[in-house]
Amino acid sequence: MPEAENLVCIADRQGVKLVRLRAAALLTEDEVEALGQALMALAEMPGQRVVLSFLGVTHITSVVLNTLVLVQRRLEESGGDLRLADIDPHVFEMFAITRLDRKFRIFERDEDAVASFLAGPEG
Predict the structure, then answer these.
(1) Is the separation of the CB atoms in 98 and 67 below 8 Å?
(2) pLDDT for 26-44, tens place per residue?
(3) Quick check: helix, strand or coil at residue 51?
(4) What is the pTM of this model?
(5) How far apart, in Å, are the Cα atoms of 97 and each of 64, 91, 101?
(6) What is the distance between the alpha carbons of residues 73 and 120, in angstroms, rounded to a whole number?
(7) Which domains are delineated in the chain?
(8) Which own/partner contact pairs does 7-13 have at CB distance under 8 Å and 24+ positions apart?
């Protein structure tokens, strides 16, 4: 199984956790599980603000979408939030087809997503 630190890079941007994926595709069960573990670890911290950047990711499975829904729910329960950024048009289609583009706040660039947190709760 891939280690979470090999799959994601987590940086702090003025109190916002910026999570960048290190894979062009998230297709295997092990990859999705490692991503879920990394994101859930962040979600366990109260009030965590997280931006997940899909920069360079061209393929994901529907299991990734389910994982993101679970992570978002956990973040909301702990007073935090998840925002997505840098989504390839092909990957965005999966969000649109499942109508998850309406559930998540999605930004063109991760810098915009981070800035939205810094602008306030409705940013």
Answers:
(1) no
(2) 889 999 999 999 999 999 9
(3) strand
(4) 0.92
(5) 14, 10, 8
(6) 20
(7) 4-113 (3.30.750.24)
(8) 7/31, 7/34, 7/35, 7/38, 8/34, 8/35, 8/38, 10/38, 10/42, 13/51, 13/114
